[in-house]
Automatic annotation (TrEMBL):
Known EC number: 2.5.1.3
InterPro entries: Aldolase_TIM (IPR013785), ThiamineP_synth_sf (IPR036206), ThiamineP_synth_TenI (IPR022998), TMP_synthase (IPR034291)
Superkingdom of this protein's organism: Bacteria
UniProt binding sites for 4-amino-2-methyl-5-(diphosphooxymethyl)pyrimidine: Q45, Y46, R47, E48, K49, N77, S116, K145
Protein name: Thiamine-phosphate synthase
UniProt KW Transferase keyword: yes
Family, per entry: Belongs to the thiamine-phosphate synthase family.
Known role: Condenses 4-methyl-5-(beta-hydroxyethyl)thiazole monophosphate (THZ-P) and 2-methyl-4-amino-5-hydroxymethyl pyrimidine pyrophosphate (HMP-PP) to form thiamine monophosphate (TMP).
CDD domains per the UniProt record, alphabetical: TMP_TenI
Gene Ontology terms: cellular component: cytoplasm
Cofactors, names only: Mg(2+)
Organism (species): Megasphaera paucivorans
Catalytic reactions on record: 2-(2-carboxy-4-methylthiazol-5-yl)ethyl phosphate + 4-amino-2-methyl-5-(diphosphooxymethyl)pyrimidine + 2 H(+) = thiamine phosphate + CO2 + diphosphate; 2-[(2R,5Z)-2-carboxy-4-methylthiazol-5(2H)-ylidene]ethyl phosphate + 4-amino-2-methyl-5-(diphosphooxymethyl)pyrimidine + 2 H(+) = thiamine phosphate + CO2 + diphosphate; 4-methyl-5-(2-phosphooxyethyl)-thiazole + 4-amino-2-methyl-5-(diphosphooxymethyl)pyrimidine + H(+) = thiamine phosphate + diphosphate
Pathway the protein takes part in: Cofactor biosynthesis; thiamine diphosphate biosynthesis; thiamine phosphate from 4-amino-2-methyl-5-diphosphomethylpyrimidine and 4-methyl-5-(2-phosphoethyl)-thiazole: step 1/1
């Protein structure tokens, strides 16, 4: 699939799964990726903080290939060199990773680039610098990220919903209990680790999340 099509797909697909092996109930990242792909999720991010470059490269390359075969967009977390080396479609950078302009310069105009944001200022800067989407959170407290920021403020939520011209992917503590209310608030894209990869049955977890979104759609 072309990157142009993938950019379009990002705007149409509500669910964004993030892989993290320590949270995957004993499955390895390839097994989890396969289950997530089979569940129909169209965006997958590889996020490992404690593996070596070589391990990340090996896993990332294999998952990128699986994603390519199934029309799934594959995003590498943090590192531009790994994203390029693995043949990822995109990179997700945090506020402490390579600045977007540098990442763009290294990765080229075609690479999808997402940026983690927590404040109005960070969203504003990411848009100005040409991000394709922002990750925005944490929406709720989360156990999955050790150094998570404070939960986003009402002011930042309002800016994200009404002033941000690129897709806002809500993240942090999103699960079946709250995805519907986030949808009703105006969020359309949802990134999750535990509500997807920590579930015993990933396919039924994803189906349930989709159903909750569909129900909320009818009430907005
Ligand atoms: N980034 P879960 S919160 C990876 O706020 C990540 O930028 C966050 O995991 C941010 O869905 C987070 O299990 C963890 O809460 C998301």
């Amino acid at each position: 699939m072309s990157r142009t099509k993938q950019r379009e797909q990002l705007k149409n697909e509500p669910l964004y799964a993030i892989l993290g092996e320590s949270l995957s109930l004993g499955r390895n990242n390839l097994e989890t990726a396969e289950a997530v792909i089979n569940a129909g999720v169209k965006t997958i991010q590889y996020r490992e903080k404690n593996k070596t470059w070589r391990q990340k490269y090996a896993e990332g390359t294999a998952i990128a290939k699986m994603c390519r075969q199934h029309g799934v967009t594959f995003i590498m977390n943090d590192s531009v060199d790994l994203a390029i080396a693995c043949g990822a479609d995109g990179i997700h950078v945090g506020q402490d990773d390579a600045p977007l302009a540098i990442a763009r310069k290294m990765a080229g105009p075609d690479m999808i680039i997402g940026v983690s944001t927590n404040t109005v200022e960070e969203i504003h800067t990411a848009v100005l610098e040409g991000a394709d989407y922002v990750g925005f959170g944490p929406m709720f407290p989360t156990q999955s990220k050790k150094d998570a920021n404070p939960v986003v403020t009402a002011e930042a939520v309002s800016y994200a919903l009404h002033k941000c011209s690129i897709p806002v992917v809500a993240i942090g503590g999103i699960e079946t209990e709250n995805i519907g209310s986030l949808y009703q608030q105006g969020f359309r894209f949802f990134a999750m680790i535990s509500a997807i990869v920590s579930q015993p049955d990933i396919k039924s977890a994803v189906t349930h999340l989709r159903e909750l979104i569909e129900i909320s759609k009818k009430s907005v």
